């Protein structure tokens, strides 16, 4: 399990920034500016989606994929087997890069 502390100098929750953003959502909605609230709401829909995951699974995934880079280095183990990225032909997960595929305004 990964424990992020001040001493590890890893990025963490920027509480003042989140407080400001959440305040902006409510201000925009109260003033009828739903178009300005929508992108912030979309961000938090994605950001908070991990709340449905068990903490241990989430922290282990963050550690192995983003901190120790086990997946990229070919050292990620699932069960008793090392994950072979070259063997993956189809996935059930689709991702997109927001900068390459901007959202269409409706």
What distinguishing features does this structure have?
disordered N terminus; two-stranded antiparallel ribbon; single chain; elongated; mainly alpha; 41% helix; 3 helices; 106 residues; 2 strands
Would you mind describing this structure in some detail?
This protein has 106 residues and is mainly alpha-helical. The chain folds into two domains: 14-52; 53-93, no CATH class. The chain has helices spanning 15-30, 34-47, 55-67; strands at 77-78, 81-82. The chain has a two-stranded antiparallel sheet. Helix 1 (15-30) runs antiparallel to helix 2 (34-47). Residues 1-11 have low confidence and may be disordered.
- The order of strands across the largest sheet is 1-2
The gyration radius over C-alpha positions equals 18 Å
Poorly predicted tracts of residues: 1-11
Helix coverage percent: 40-55%
Strand content: under 5%
Main pleated sheet: 2 strands, antiparallel
Condensed summary:
This protein has two domains: 14-52; 53-93, no CATH class.
Q: What's the topology here?
A:
Layout: H1 15-30, H2 34-47, H3 55-67, E1 77-78, E2 81-82
Antiparallel strand pairs: 1-2
């Amino acid at each position: 399990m990964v424990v992020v502390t001040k001493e590890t100098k890893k990025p963490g929750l920027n509480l003042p920034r989140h407080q400001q953003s959440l305040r902006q959502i409510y201000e925009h909605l109260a003033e009828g500016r739903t178009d300005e609230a929508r992108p912030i709401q979309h961000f938090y829909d994605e950001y908070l989606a991990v709340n449905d995951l068990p903490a241990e699974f989430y922290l282990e995934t963050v550690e192995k994929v983003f901190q120790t880079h086990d997946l990229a280095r070919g050292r990620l183990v699932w069960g008793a087997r090392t994950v072979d990225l070259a063997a993956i032909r189809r996935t059930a997960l689709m991702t997109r890069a927001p900068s390459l595929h901007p959202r269409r305004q409706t």
